[in-house]
Amino acid sequence: MITIAMSRGRLFEEAVVLFNKADIDLSKVLDDTRKLIFEFEEYQLKILIVRPTDVPTYVEYGAADCGIVGKDTMMEENYNLYEPLDLGIGKCKLIVAAPNDFKMEISPSGTLKVATKYPKIANNFYRQKGIRAEIMKLYGSIELAPIVGLSDVIVDLTATGETLKENKLKIIDKIADITARFIVNKVSMKVKSEEVRGLINKLKKVR
Amino acid sequence: MNGYSILPQGVKDFGPQKAEDLKRVEDGLLEEFSRWGYKRVITPLFEYVDSIYLGLGHDLKNKLMKFVDPSTGEIVALRPDITPQIGRIVATQLRDYDYPLRLCYCGRVVRFEEKGNGKEREVFQSGCELIGLKSEEADAEIIALAIKSLNKLGLKNLVLDLGHTGILKSIMKSAGDLKDDLISALKKKDQEEVKRIIGKSKIDKDIKKVVLSLSEFYGDKSVLERAKKIKQFSPYVNELENIISILEEYQVDCQVSIDLVDIKGFNYYTGVNFEIISEKASSPLLTGGRYDSLVASYGYDVPATGFAIDAEAILAITKNHIEDNQVHFIIIPKTLRYRKEAIRLTEWLRSSGFKVILDLNKSFANGGAASKGSRSLTTYGVIILESSTKIKLIESRSGVKREFSNLEELLKGGI
Predict the structure, then answer these.
(1) Residue B300 is part of which domain span?
(2) Distance from C-alpha of B283 to C-alpha of B239, rounded to nearest angstrom
(3) Final residue of a structural domain among B264, B283, B317
(4) CA distances to B36, B83, B85, B97, B294 from B103, in Å
């Protein structure tokens, strides 16, 4: 039995399609939106439903053997994990966006104000560029920050760019292309080697 | 709760039960180490930071707990690892000993961990170092000792994960600027990332092929068969195969897993390296390997191999709590007139190997010494000196009361 940690949302729906191609039917997870643990005796799988940013934590500490998580989460923190497979789902971009009329000038305070859910990524990005940035960690509605003058720019994920457009924001930099990764606990990879690698190979074929 | 009772992140107290359990683990390990002829050394809790860097390289540079020695103004750091300290004493004080040296240690190390990730900063390390031998037999001895000492603590179903730093090192020589990126991708077993890095590079075609195959070189022993086909890997693979066959002669009880890609433990490893893992624990119980240039960095060129066990990780998966943490007897003189007899009896029981509390303040007598409460604190019973001719023994389990007319009678027949 292997345990996989995942989060609900668009990524999960895409994961269900992907697993389906590998003849693993996880669709009953979609029907019951309150349950947090699902057992699939027939595939020897257990699914844990957790928050996206918690997925690597569950896997690192061995509460789950594997996990499915966006590369953005993996970039934000250092985890001691294996990351053997790019699942190719949950495609989006990590970008810098600013109001349509934004011009890159250093503000009177000499720093660029950046609102983001990814303070470490944003900090590294601007450090490499040699720009002094003041990073503000927000937990949601990031697009609002530059509109109300909380920040100059935002660092955020975008899939279609629709939300940005609606809020009169434009992309001014791309930091990385993001897809979902299959991550594995280091001990599980060794002690449940056959099961884990079997699953990796199955997913690799249908991806 | 006031602020003083809160500890800094990553450290904790051990109550009597857990402290006793941990001691049992450490004592068990040290006993097995000494049975193999390993002698204990004790190294200081903190050292000059430069001395630590000498052996560790800059591996743990951002993880050191550093401070200024107020008496000299020098920067010192709490030890993050004991092996470099052993390297230092070997190179400075133990040069003239007969080699090989077999040394072991048991102590705490401190590593700074990023705030909030819940990891311990204080690690209980017990380990062995075999210094002065460069052979497969020496590596096998260290691995066999590592596994057998875990077995002694009742740990079964262990997995030995074996690797060899020579393989990655031989490849990285030709990787040039890509080295860091490649190592980080290989560390994550991210084959596609490896492919991407290699793809755009100008590395020689044959080496590209080897690097690509490298990321698949983990799994059961069949990995060695595949790896042997690559000429530049074959000496390392042979070494691993020989070690595995020596381990079979030791009849070690564990499953062997091979990982030629992983970078285990510290940068100072130069040859065979290994981890011992258990399904029950989410991180390795033990890390070890050959480190032939560590001692040389302290000025004495001698090969070495060793391992370090995380005693707390073992504690977490051995659930057999020890019942005899309990005291055996509580001795209570009814009045202080019988203090002398009470002390005599207590000392006699202690010298016979029992754990005894002498209760001169009658703390246990409140509510009646015979009460279930105080009885349940002892394994055997409560002894009350009621008068010079009346000594009462209340047995813990049954609650049966027995009377004796003097100490001699009690010592002879009662216990």
Answers:
(1) 11-317
(2) 26
(3) B317
(4) 10, 10, 12, 12, 15
Range of the domain at A103: 92-178
- Give pLDDT tens digits for B21-45: 899 999 999 999 999 999 999 999 9
Test B188 with A81 for CB contact under 8 angstroms: yes
Contacts of B119 in chain A (CB under 8 A): none
Q: Do A61 and B282 touch (CB under 8 A)?
A: yes
* Same domain, yes or no: B187 and B223: yes
C-beta atoms of A60 and B282 within 8 A = yes
Model ipTM value? 0.80
Report residue B379's pLDDT band, with 50, 70 and 90 as the boundaries: confident
CB atoms within 10 A of CB B129: 27
pLDDT of amino acid B203 = 78
Number of domains within chain A: 2
For range B382-392, the mean pLDDT: 87
Same-domain check for residues B134 and B75: yes
H or E stretch at B88: helix B83-92
Cβ-based neighbours of B110, under 8 Å, separated by 6 or more: B65, B78, B79, B80, B121, B122, B123
Taking an 8 Å cut-off on Cβ atoms, the answer to whether A83 and B189 are in contact is: yes
Residues of A with CB under 8 A from a CB of B: 60-63, 78, 80-86, 184-187, 189-193, 197
Terminal-to-terminal C-alpha distance of chain B = 46
Same domain, A167 and A192: no
* DSSP letters for B164-219: EHHHHHHHHTTTGGGHHHHHHHHHTT-HHHHHHHHHTS---HHHHHHHHHHTT-EE
Question: Which of B297, B317, B337 finishes a domain?
Answer: B317
**Cβ within 8 Å, pair B282-A78:** no
* Per-residue DSSP letter, B98: P
**Best residue of B159, B187, B189, B258 to probe chain A, by most A CBs closer than 10 Å:** B189
